[in-house]
Amino acid sequence: MGYSLLIPLGFLLFSSINGDSIQDPACPSFDCGNGITIDYPFWHQNQQIEHCGYPGFDLSCADQNPMLHLSNYTDLYPIKHINYSNKSLILAYSGLKSATCPTITHDITLNTSSLLFNSSGNKLVRFFYNCSLYPPSLPHIQCLQYGAKRSYVFKEGAIPEFDWNRYCASTVVVPVIEEAMDHGDLVQGFDQGFKLTWNQAAADGVCQSCEASGGFCSYSNGLPSTFFCICSYGRESINCHNHGVASTRRRPNYVALGALLLTIGGLVIMATVFYVTQKKKKNKGVGSYKPV
């Protein structure tokens, strides 16, 4: 009975010796609580020990919402949707007074080192805030009117001729999903947010090599200079191959191997005790037999 359990365990032992991991790689998906599954190349900046993903793709879970930090600003942008098939995500504008009264303090720009790109599905719009002088016939953002000062928003390329920079306190350029503006009020379109895409091929060469070998790119503390490749059996400095040549044998999973050896050892002891006990009972039964 006990020995029958050793047969399947033997297969598991062989699997561990050959490096077939019985655990998933250290790149788990997670959910901040709003139903959006966060997966590679994004990673949780506070909970994942292995920073499994691209630099700048670290997310925080604030108020059960995944939030992404962009550029050099402190703003966090809530994630509305992620499409892993076409490598795109939609971010919402944070800090709006309401869906119909946007006040955005700075341009939305991406660092040159960022792997995120402005989507072609966006349209750039320009705000002019607190203008002291303006063409009187133009519609303005009524919820942002303060006394005689007015604020305006226009699509880039369709800005009326006027010396806006001279008479307005500030100007801001931001992207908005083009469909949202084409099917409704320009200001209300900000409630739909804006779209960004990422390009897997834009990752550095060592990251491409890692992914091509079936690994996951990881950067300790999110720093590009601290790259390592997460494979099914552990870390590698470049990829999941052996010095650039595909390995015919994977590295042993020593943790799994140790656990299996302990389990097998325990079962062997149990089977031995069971065998000895049964044999003693049998011998005792034979010795006590008396013919009638």
From TrEMBL:
Swiss-Prot/TrEMBL keywords: Glycoprotein, Membrane, Signal, Transmembrane, Transmembrane helix
Cell location: Membrane
Enzyme Commission no: 2.7.11.1
Pfam families: GUB_WAK_bind (PF13947), WAK_assoc (PF14380)
Transmembrane segments: 254-276
Domain Wall-associated receptor kinase galacturonan-binding: 27-91
Signal peptide (UniProt feature, chain positions): 1-19
Family annotation (InterPro entries): WAK_assoc_C, WAK_GUB
Enzyme class: transferase
Domain Wall-associated receptor kinase C-terminal span(s) in chain numbering: 143-232
UniProt topology in membrane: Single-pass membrane protein
UniProt GO MF annotations: polysaccharide binding; protein serine/threonine kinase activity
Annotated catalysed reactions: L-seryl-[protein] + ATP = O-phospho-L-seryl-[protein] + ADP + H(+); L-threonyl-[protein] + ATP = O-phospho-L-threonyl-[protein] + ADP + H(+)
A cellular component annotation (GO) from this entry: membrane
PANTHER family, per the entry: OS01G0690200 PROTEIN, WALL-ASSOCIATED RECEPTOR KINASE GALACTURONAN-BINDING DOMAIN-CONTAINING PROTEIN
Protein name (Swiss-Prot/TrEMBL): non-specific serine/threonine protein kinase
Organism: Manihot esculenta (Cassava)
Lineage of the organism: Eukaryota, Viridiplantae, Streptophyta, Embryophyta, Tracheophyta
